Amino acid sequence: LGVTFSGPGTQPGPLPPRQNRATTCMDWRYHQALLAKRNLADPIRVDSANPDDSMSQLAVVMLALFGQMERIYSLERAAHARAVAMSKGRRIGRPSVVDPTKLAYADHLRNAGHTIPDIVSKTGITKSSLYRILPPRRADPAPSADE
Q: Per the CB 3.0–4.6 Å rule, which of 3, 101, 118, 131 could disulfide with 114?
């Protein structure tokens, strides 16, 4: 059959004594069939040096699949943890570094018509934080042509 295996458990027991030529041939075929059987404990031969080898291509695809599955499971676990934390009333993400009183003062100044640079100089909150935290200013209606 062209397949040979060596190692413990791969050699069958001794052949029964010969009775005639037909049984000897059948015994030899049985013996060869036992040697050719494979099970899940046998190693799969993968030649990773040959990119055209179908087993090496399969191995790469399987590793990519497992990596993608782990990434998906990781995202699902993180989303579940966030949902549980939010349902328990915990805040998600990094804590805010902006003092709530300064933020209220900045909102008051913004509603009073001050510009962002004025609010930055009076509160000490950075410009990028103000743009991120404060709601955008409502656009004033354009004056009509009659006025």
A: 118
Predicted confidence (pLDDT) per residue in 86-97, tens digit: 999 988 888 878
Q: Name the region of 104 (left: φ>0; alpha: ψ -120 to 50; beta: rest).
A: alpha
- Global model pTM greater than 0.85: no
Residue with tokens 């001050």: 114
Which pair of tokens denotes residue 36?
């050719």
